[in-house]
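Lab meeting prep.
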Amino acid sequence: MNCEAPTNRQGRGRARRAAAAFGLVCMLFLMSCSSGTPQPATFTGAAGEVRLMTLAPGHFHAALVQKTTYDQVSPVVHVYAPKGADVHDHLQRIEAFNRRAENPTQWRQRTYVGDDFLQRMLDERPGNVVVISGNNRNKAEYIRACVDAGLHVLADKPMCIDPAGCHLIEQAFDIADRNGVLLYDIMTERSEITTILQRELVQNPEVFGTLAKGDIDDPAVVKQSVHHFFKYIAGSPIKRPGWYFDTTQQGEGMVDVTTHLVDLVMWECFPGQSIDYDSDVRMLRARRWPTLISREQFAKVTRLDDFPAYLKQKLNADGALPCYANGEMDYTIRQIHVRVSVAWEFQAPDGAGDTHYSIMRGSRANIIIRQGKDEHYRPELCVEPAAGASGDALGAAMERAVAALQQSYPGVSLERQDDRWHVRIPDAYRIGHEAHFRQVMERYLDYLARGALPEWEVPNMKAKYRTITEALNLSRG
């Protein structure tokens, strides 16, 4: 016989219903946590908190990110890659850094190789930052998949090589913003000392005046680079994969090195300002042309006996490969006329190397970087008076400008050479291209600890990739 009072039975019923409701809420909460985008990692700058995952490494830049170590980065790096020589070569480069006599690194690589490398990485997620530098054909898709999964991404240039890829990258930046992750590309040329000082002088109105507008035949800003397929990296002859010469995988010259040059135009002319392609940029003309690669040259740089099948169908009547690695574009940015060009030769003459030329024309002076034979193939910065400007007034302004630069760059000095001024730069600041990867990585680590990129970076990356892919379209038209 149940002698329990009615009021007690009602109270227990309410309690059971409340407990059941609470359990349902907990279950729904757990389900919501286990579905959708995982929460992105947040950083404080603490030692070892950044855990790298290297995705499909195929370019030596992937290894240069690890040429040195960083307190904030764990020494354990997980590599996910398809089968083939690319991942083997990457691991060998890292091991060489570990074995070198001077300042050896202590990286510990954990490698997965298989066709499902991307999905495997997204499922396992042993790290929180993805480094991507390799075959560019699917790079935009990889980047989007990573930011969609709530992973931070440091990607080598170019992030994309055609308009379809550019559209994916624009989407990736928007997804990264919603998911609270940082997507950033590796712009090493901002760390080159002559470019840094050129930028400083362009922003000095007493020296430079105002930026000229120029015209299509005489642009206000010109940036030109000459590169070489065969050269030495970290003291060893470079080995490039066969696909590097397939522009459907590597991309044409118009969308490769030009990424750096277009970036520098915005970075130097409009520092700290956001650029919008649709309202600020107008493409005027663009052209492309090939570098012919012989079978012997191809074998020398790839260490392959012959052209692979996907390149053989592109050979000309003489058996050489026309590789469209060269391009030039003329455009305006906020009505300033700009010319950007890149050319690739197979190998530099003895004592020479990659070269860079840059001129920025102002109302008072032209700020110029030269890196030719007269400069012993080392970039040098000089300042010349603009047409009609006073050379004596410019000299006095340069004296004051260099004195101010010495506060940040001790040892920088000024030398007059006829009607121009040469900015002498101590060797200590000429650390070289490979060392610039450390500086880029350190900037990125700082942004991760702050939780944000500078406000202008994402708009300008979007504008940069629109610029190069629109130029590619026009050059093919």
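Slide two material, second protein:
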Amino acid sequence: MTSLQQRLKDLASIDLRGIRRGIEKESLRVQPGGALALTPHPASLGSALAHPNITTDFSESQVELITGVHTRVSSCLDELTQIHQFVYREIGDELLWVGSMPCGLPADETIPIGSYGPSNVGRAKSVYRMGLGHRYGRRMQTISGIHYNWSMPGVSTDEYFALIRNFRRHSFLLLYLFGASPAVCSSFVAGREHRLQALGNHTLHLPHATSLRMGRLGYQSDAQATLSVSYNSLDGYGASLQDALTRPYPPYEALGILNPGGEYNQLATSLLQIENEFYGTIRPKRVIRPGERPLHALRERGVEYVEVRCMDLDPFEPVGIGAGTIAFLDVFLLHCLLADSPPDTPDEVAAQARNQHRTAERGRESTLRLERGYEEVTIAEWGAELVDECAPIAAALDSLHGGSTHVDALASATAALRDPEHLPSAEVLQAMVREHEGSYTGFIKARSELIKSDLMKRPFTPDMQARFERLARESVEEQQRIEEADSVPFDEFRQRYLSLKRLVV
């Protein structure tokens, strides 16, 4: 019996039944013709500052739909579906863009930044986004994805960090299996250097790409590339993050906090304005208290769950992710938790970044090899080994829940490793060429229309409508309470929030 199998055997069934997950799903609102909607966040959806299920991400045009925490996959997807149904009923003839890479975009400066009202916390959210726009460009921030939040009873902070180290080693497999962004609208890279190839009308791609969202054109930052973050312990991770949050960065110092007109450019001139600016495929997380810094919460109370951030929107799934993908994620994350997880090193972390970029941009290329220690292996070889190691985990989950969902998810992964033409990234390109003359926006627009029509036809009871209308009203009332409770000027609030003492325990 391997050490992984022994650890799995040691887990009580109650622990496996206690797996908890939640989903955060981003989507751009677009006009019927496929251009970015420049309208404000619809008032009937409630307050983007205070609504528990419906907010915005970077832009007013980018909704973020958030489920609660669920122990059953079906209930999680049901809630996400109902949130979609309500939103579709409130946005008129607009669509939710079902691709991770954005629709046709206007000039960078005209992409509207999220607005959260005049409260100090609301202004801070907008100023933070203004800073992101200055630092990385607004177009990059319009990329959308799925964040999968996952936890299990009894897992310690050290065990979560072991999971994270293994996840970072093996996340190439998720990009390969579930990446669905091999092409972009040419407006996304206007004025930028790139190595993309023309495909169709206003469309660029890489022929073997899986997830351009996770490649060099996606959520990447030359400034953050200077960070060397270790995931060997909470102490080490916290020290790395604290350094980035407090270290002045000359280009951002040159930008300044205020522009000549006295408006805010950014929250801070440090390498990171706040913790959420740090990009990564996975994050250690802890629910924070009002006004608390995320790093302080982690240091004081430990890791509560992990947030998987590398999943593309699947344009073939009504809510961007399906039950089979979730089943694979649950097995994969359990494997990351149970398998041996040696400490990471700077050299290994650098190799992980190279593996991520290779898989994102060339993952379906048959000759592609990834770095694994002192050797190089193909994705098919390494992926097959990981899937084989996952087999007892899938069997254990199926024996608990009945059916064969988890074993079937591994079987699908094995088939995709043997024949990449059935991967979502390949099927996206095939459908674009076959049905839309190679047009990315044509394909995603058609899928967006089809999915909206499908979800609008599904049952949505008056009670469901009334519940979401009540949540919208309550969120507006909560925003008013937040605004009325402010007691200090914004800049004093900003400086207090960013002070070093708010980061330490």
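Talking points for slide two:
The first strand starts at residue 20 and ends at 30.
The domain at 3-10+19-502 is CATH 3.30.590.20 (Creatine Kinase; Chain A, domain 2).
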